[in-house]
Structures are given as structure tokens and as C-alpha cells.
Amino acid sequence: MTVACPRRTRCARPLRALLCAAAALLVACNTSHPPPPGTPVVTMGNLTNSSDFMSYIINIDSIALKRSDGTVVTPLVTPVTVDLAQLNTLSELVEAPAVPEGTYTSAAITLDYTSTQLVWFNINGETLSATPSTAAGLGFTAVSVIVTFDPKNPLVIKQNQSVRLQVEVDLLASNELNTATAIVQVQPFVVIRPAPVDATPMRLRGLFVTTQDVPSGFYMNARPFYSQYSALGAVIVNTNAQTYFNINGVVYTGSAGLAVLSQQAQTLPLAVYGTLASVSGVTPSFNATQVYFGASQESQVAYYLTGTVTARSGNTLTLRASTVVPPPGVAALSLTYLDSIPVTLGNATLVFEDGSATPGLTIADISVGQQLTLAGQPVVSAGALASIDASSGFVRLQSTTLWGHAKCRRDSRSLLARPFRSHRHQLRGHRHLRTRRNGDRVRRGYERRAARTGHHNR
After folding, report:
1. Which domain holds residue 258?
2. In whole angstroms, what is the distance from residue 394 CA to residue 303 CA?
3. Checking DSSP bridges between strand 384-398 and strand 350-353, what pairing results, if any?
4. Does residue 389 share a domain with residue 279?
5. Per DSSP, what are the bridge partners of residue 424?
6. CB-count burial class (<10 Å; 0-12, 13-18, 19+) for 199
7. Same-domain check for residues 220 and 111
8. Same domain, 233 and 356
9. How does pLDDT run across 229-240, given as a tens digit for each residue?
């Protein structure tokens, strides 16, 4: 579906023309009567199921689809920056663009490592940075991975209907790390397939449009990952009486939050957490459990960090494995990773618990092991980011995932925990990275353990 516009902007009439124009641009120039569009709903996760990857920031330059008649369309043409390690526990709804109807037999995704100087690993609880390389030892730049769909299950896009297209990157299969030289040999392994609507938790980031014409919900335009400039298709977001809202640092639940959201300005950023609801129409729908709007999600003036607290001394935290998102235009890179950074809190620091309207939270509720997102101001020393001052900012407490191997006996059950990188309170099975030590290959994995979340076989 193309970008949505609210009724009061008087773009309802041109919307049909925009749909046709978008379809016309996507088809080959020698097609005089382009087929009417449908909507591939591109979602992205990874197959890694491992805590071995701390940060894996690359660009996705494009996603292209090839139809059975040879026509190639490119639903993603604007490069987006993504941390593939973050997709390990939460999928992302990437886009919902207009694409000509037809049967598509293959897809191609271009992964760009040109700006990726280092990727970060968790090796037995210690972080290690490594330089991406080809098998020949050359610097890794960009590669296009072509995936041919199963002939019995091609991607079929129908007029005025949506269909889910799942993209998954297996970081374990794609990387082999030499711990002695700190070089990681990259050969991307990607799965792209049509997928059903299911209960997979995912995030939908984008821009608010309007609550008009959506009972108990709103329209938004997708802007995935950390992009600052794209608008990649409209999505209808459904809310209910239990939906949690954090709107510019004020918490609401249910209809009260939706009423406040309806008064907000268009095109401001928000992020929605929940599940894909329906692809029966040309505009897909999404069931929201949590909504973060405006400054609670991102702003023009603050730095936003997501990481794990590993130490606390008074009002100073040590935040490890932090994804850092600076305000637009502040840094050359829109996204970076810091292995460790101190954060200063204060009595004015606001504290929230994601998904729970818990009153009375203070900085005393922040403890070691806590996964969190915070907003604050940079403290720069010698031209580099030295610390974050969140004394006038906020902290969002998040659930914690414990990675480990379940050891089951008749009379007991124990867990061998993997240290570090814990967020969201669920026990997950574990796979390991292929590594080399002193030139000898150590194949540490491709096994999967039974976990509370169930069995998952390759």
C-alpha cells in the first residue's frame, strides 16, 4: 500500500492516482497497461537464535522481486541501516509498498558492508570486535543474495490484497570468526519466503498519520529500523483496552491513550509493538500491545541508547552492549555501537516500565542486569562520546531474556546460563558461532537445544 494521507489533508482523491503511479513506476517501461497493485508486507527477522552476536550493523541497499514474466520490481530502493543482531529477539515490519500483481519466482537482497568497520561478538561472556572480510581476505563491500522461491510456494501478489514476505538472515551460517586475528569471514546466508500471518512478536516503526476512519486505531506509514527519510507504505494499527501508550513521556492505557494520540501532529515518529493482524486487504493491519510516540521513542535533541546495566555506583550506571541512536544530522552514522559507556542519572530522571502503567517508579528501581532504553545528552571528551547525562532525561525499563541451555532431569530442571546480552524474560535455546582459534577451526555449533519456547529445527 502506498503512503497514507489523512482526509483533512484532502489527498483522498489523488490517492488512487498515487497507487497507479507507484505501480507504473515499478513495472517495466515497455508495459503499456501495468497490472493493478497488491501489497507485499515485508517482515524481517533472523534465524540465529544465539547470543554470540552483540552488534552487526550493515546497510540493506535494496530488495527486488522478479516476476514469472521476467519483470523486476524493487519495493525497497532507499538504503536502510539495520543492526541484524537486534533481530534475534524481535522481528521488524519493514515495509508495505504497492507492487504489481503477479506470480513472483525469486527475490534479491543487497547487503552492504561498506560502512561496517567492525562487528561485535560475545565470546564466553567477553566482547570481541572483528573486521568483516571475504574468503580471499579482502575487505567486504556489498553483495546481492538471490533467493529462488519454491515453485510450489511462489510469492503471489493479488490485486488489492496483501501478502507477507519474510526475510531472515542466519548470522551463524553467514560468519566464521578467527579469534586470533579478529577477522570474520562473511558469506551471507539469507532465507526469503512467503509466510503466513502468525503470532510472531514484531516492531513497526514509522510516522503517525491519523485516527480517522479506523475504529479503535490509527494509520501510520512504515519507516523501518533507524531510517530518517523513508515512508514505505501505510499500515492500519489496531488498539484495545489493554494497549499501553507512552506519548511524550506520559503513560496511558486503552482509549485514553488513543484519544491523546488523535490530537498529535502528523508525521511525528512512533514505534508500535505487537503482531501482524491481517493481510486480507490492500492495507495490512497490525495489533498493537505497546505504542511509543514522539520523545518517548526518538527526538531531534536527545541521544537514545539501548543496552544492559552491568554496574551501578550511586547515580552512575555502566551500560554495556549499547546501540546508540544520535539525533538526525549529528553524526555521520545514524547508528553506532558502544561496548561500554557511563550514564549519569538524577532525581529528575523519569522512569517507566515498558508495557506496564506502573506508577511511582524512580531511579532506585534500576539495577544491575536490567535491559533498558534511555534518553539523555552527550558528554564529549577529546571529540568522542565519553558518557551520557540522563539526569534530565528518561529511562524505559525492559524485560530481560536469559540465554542458556536447559538441562532436564526427572527430578529437577536447571539452566546453564550464557552471560551478558540478556533482555526479555524468557528462556531461549541456543546455537553457537563457528570460530577458529590459532588457525584451527572449532565448530561450536549448529545444535539447537529444547527451550521453554519449544523446539525449532532447521
Report:
1. 1-298
2. 11
3. parallel
4. no
5. none
6. exposed
7. yes
8. no
9. 888 999 999 999
